[in-house]
Amino acid sequence: MSNILEVNNVVKKYGDFVALNEVSLTVPKGSIYGLLGPNGAGKTSLIRIINQITMPDSGEIILDGEKLSPKHVQYIGYLPEERGLYKTMKVGEQCLYLAQMKGLSKAEAKKQLEYWFERLEIQGWWNKKIQELSKGMAQKVQFVVCVLHKPKLLIFDEPFSGFDPVNANVIKDEILELQKQGSTIIFSTHRMESVEELCDHIALIHKSNKLIEGRLDDVKRKFRTNSFEVGIVSDNVEGLMYDITQKFKVGQTNFKSLNNEIKLEIQLGNATPNELLNLLTQRGQVTHFIEKIPSVNDIFIQAVS
Amino acid sequence: MSSIISLIIKREFFAKVRNKSFIVMTFLSPLLFVGIAVFVGYLSTMKADTKQVAIHDETGLFANEFLSSNKNDAEYKYLDLTAIDIKSLKDSITNESYEGLLYIPKVPNNKELESKIQYISNESPSLSFIENIQDIIAQKLTKENYQKANLDTIAITNAKSKVAISLAKASGEQSVKGLNEIKIAIGGAFGYLIMMFIIIYGNMVMRSVIEEKTNRIVEIIISSVKPFQLMMGKIIGTSLAGLLQFFIWAIIGLSMMLVASYFLGLETCPAPKIPSDAMQTAHQQMTGTAQMYVQELWNLPITTILISFVIYFIGGYFLYSSFYASIGAAVDNETDSQQFLLPIIMPLVLAVYIGFFTVINDPHGTVATVFSMIPLTSPIVMLMRIPFGVPLWQLALSITILFGTFFFVVWFAAKIYRVGILMYGKKPTWKELYKWLKY
């Protein structure tokens, strides 16, 4: 089994509103899978269905080769976007309770908790009440609750919101560590830079439909525009521009550089990169020559609009 | 799966029991209750000031009757002031040297007198006082009339007969009058207990649901357990906390009653469960029947009452708290819950009224019977009917309907609950709730 999760033609309606329209996804084992989409696209509906919080109207979910059933709750760890814990309950007690709900024995839950509390350096919080903790601290506790039962599939909905950069990094490292240990991670977020950084697969849902799915590299290849960012220092700018505009579509661009050069974005069309490079080297000193790879952000905006 | 429910029950129970306000209420309420009971008991032992009533009797017939009714500890004391001019007497009422003035004018014949007597006072007198005066005058007048007609008063008195019908059931047990009040009091006490429990702890269930919703923890929990399990765990856990609280109240209340009555030398307070007039009616019966009362109380279907109490308690509480739970799930905060709470409180209040006004008059009449079948009122109304003897088939039918409705309502409430707990920022309407049922 190379896929931990398969979503097949899932439909979910709320009254007349269709939240998910025949959505199918395939999440490979061991991947970090970015689930993207604008607000109200249907991401949360899908995540709730995977967590068996709501039932799909039609379609099926296969988890690790088996049809999704109540016993699978212990294989999934879920960190919802809307977070919260019992305010007046003590941290340790609360974690124990939630872990036992996931099917852990009390002793096992305690052992795991001690491990995680030490790992995240929050041992001193065991007897504190949640209301005594700051928001970020409570988030940490919630992260522990989510991963405590060693789930095969972790679903994080905006995991970094509410964390300061230091703690966000701690959590990011933990996520990568969990992946190393064999967990698969579904990652729903609006922060494209973290998708870029972490995800190897992405899917994009828009208006209840899946628009894009695949390995991040493949998706990027599909969205490449075959254009290059070029930096060139030239004595004869007008001549240079004349030459290029004869053969290529040219636009202004901006990138970071220490030279005082002309910065251009050049669409190759049918030409090869070498043809462009040849032309450029005849006209001046090339300081920058790089294919413009679409960012996840670009892909997102392009797909949605 | 069942271990998960017990896990939830445990958490709910301890969350309630450890709550500060719960602890305070548990130990403060009996103090308040006993305090009030002792205060009332103390007040009722205080003697009211003796009030003086002036009598101006121009006929000279009645004054002595009143004077002879003067007792040392009576509330009213009569003074014969016929000697004083009626006009100045009337004026002096305003000085309030006496409570009121009974004016019996001289009239040609006794017949006319019946409607000519006046009672003049600043404050309107109590009904029982006026009735008492009327009795005294009427008796004296009747006696006078007999004498005028040359009738033998003694013979007439002897000829009068007083009938006391003794009630008996077909099963052969003897019954006593005035027992109805005691019966309704017993049934009423149990019914009232159920109502109080539903209102207090149903509300607690609702608040607990709202708390989980506002805490936003509910999504995590629902990803591990079924909403139905969470709801049932909550209801059971809260009710256990409630039972513990009731138990503590009963123990503290009883021991404090004992202590209070011991130290203050009060007679054991008139048990608040039994309306005092029921006691009075009972007392007015001849003391010889006292034993019969005890006998009769023992003859009440005590086992049936207790067993049905437990059954109706569970059925009624679960039925109502499922409503409370789904209301909690539907709203975002407690203020929004008001519009949905009214239809819940109404049948409860209605049931108590029906119990005290209809059941006591006609325990097996149509109204009482119908409302003891309707599941929303049956836990209270039926419990009030049981001491009067309810046919077994009615009991069985009522319980079946109650539990049938309970399962239907739980299914229905669980649906609203399931959808509601994940809905934020929507102020639900009835229409919206109906839509949720179809999700």
Percent range for β-strand residues of chain A: 25-35%
Choose one word for the global shape of chain B: elongated
The CATH architecture name of the largest domain in chain A reads: 3-Layer(aba) Sandwich
- First and last CA, distance of chain B: 25 Å
In round numbers, the mean pLDDT of chain A is 88
- What is the largest interface, and how many residues per chain? A-B, 27 and 25 residues
Got a strand count of chain B? 6
Task: Look at the helices and sheets of chain B and give the structural class.
Answer: mainly alpha
Q: Under CATH, the topology of the largest domain in chain A is which?
A: Rossmann fold
Question: Which percent bin holds the helix content of chain A?
Answer: 25-40%
Give, in spatial order, the strands making up the sheet with the most strands of chain A: 6-7-8-3-9-10
Strand order of the largest sheet of chain B: 2-1-3-4
Instruction: Specify the structural class of chain A.
Output: alpha/beta
What is the H/E string of chain B? HHEHEHEHEHHEEHHHHHHHHHHH
Q: Catalogue the unreliable spans of chain B.
A: 266-274
The named CATH superfamily of the largest domain in chain A: P-loop containing nucleotide triphosphate hydrolases
Q: How many domains of chain B?
A: 2
Explain how this protein is built:
The complex is a heterodimer of chains A (305) and B (439). Chain A has helices at residues 43-50, 91-101, 106-119, 135-147, 165-180, 192-198, 216-223, 237-247, 273-283, 296-304, and strands at 3-14, 17-28, 32-36, 58-63, 66-67, 76-79, 153-157, 184-188, 201-206, 209-215, 227-233, 249-252, 262-267, 285-291. With 305 residues, chain A is of the alpha/beta class. Chain A has 2 domains: 3-221, 3-Layer(aba) Sandwich (Rossmann fold), CATH 3.40.50; 225-294, Alpha-Beta Plaits, CATH 3.30.70. In chain A, a hairpin with a 2-residue loop joins strand 1 (3-14) and strand 2. In chain A, helix 2 (91-101) crosses helix 3. The two termini of chain A are 36 Å apart. The model of chain A has no long low-confidence stretch (mean pLDDT 88). With 439 residues, chain B is mostly helical. Chain B folds into 2 domains: 2-42 and 177-437, no CATH class; 51-160, Periplasmic binding protein-like II (D-Maltodextrin-Binding Protein, domain 2, 3-Layer(aba) Sandwich), CATH 3.40.190.10. In chain B, helix 2 packs parallel to helix 10 (227-264), helix 8 runs antiparallel to helix 16 (378-385) and helix 14 (338-359) runs parallel beside helix 16. The longest helix of chain B has 38 residues, at 227-264. The chains are: A alpha/beta (305), B mainly alpha (439).
